[in-house]
Amino acid sequence: MPHGRRGMTAVGPPLVSRLVAKQFPQWAGLPVREVSTVGTDNMIYRLGDELVVRLPALPRAAPTVGREWEWLPRLAPRLPLDVPVPLGSGVPDGEFPYPWSVYRWLEGQTLATRPDLDMRDVAVRLGRFVAALQRIDTAGAPRSPRAVPVRAGDTEVHESIERLAAVGLVDAELATAVWEDALAAQPWAKPPVWLHGDLLPANLVARHGRLAAVIDFGQVGTGDPATDLLPAWALLTTRTRDVFRAVVGVDDATWRRGRGWALKAGLGAMRIYRYTNPALAAAGRHSLAEVLADFRVTP
């Protein structure tokens, strides 16, 4: 049934308890409580102290569930940070129309709510994660939903620049220059690599003061490595960006395409969420500000 906001499906602890009891009786009776998140595609519920239930909130998120079921158990042992591995795979029924998952709970706080970390250490750890992911064999891997050429976003980017410039939120000339530079960069001509596809601060988890886990692999698959450079601008600053770049090992053309992706993401977040989701809008503002500042000082 519709949730009443952007077509979201209505879910609550009683329904989650019933779904778990029917499909995973070994966990029946564990307390269920909702977890507040900044994301828009999934709903998260703690199940007892050690488990978490993740359910698609929108039809577009449903196909990503199977992608995580199949690939996270294979990728997890090869990555230097914790990732969620499914413990139970729920199926649609008369009460809930989409597949859903039970995972082990990963303790910590997302970087969307933990700005007090050593960001140089974060840059190193995140760079190692991205580099390790890119090195994993891609045989049989699916194409990431984010695996599209930078140019595919051209119309959207120009519309966003126009609308945000009209209300004084972006320097249209500078933003357009960044985008044109990304379009002019040499396209990725090597074999596609593994991508997370959504490395926003809300999907990075800190524990004991250090980056410890990466979550939400709904966009996982193969594509242009520029896509996973997003946190260079969405999270980091001029003081730590080059550390991340050096650890990942990024050529100039890929860096320029990545900056274009970060521009697109920042513009989109500000345009779509500035009135409805303060956390995502703030990430968009950070990304946009860092992209423009970085481009100003580019030789």
Automatic annotation (TrEMBL):
Keywords: Transferase
KW Transmembrane (keyword) present: no
Residue ranges annotated for the Aminoglycoside phosphotransferase domain, each copy included: 39-261
GO molecular function, one term: transferase activity
Signal peptide: none
Highest taxon listed in the record's lineage: Bacteria
A matching Pfam family: APH
Protein name according to UniProt: Phosphotransferase
Source species of the chain: Phytohabitans houttuyneae
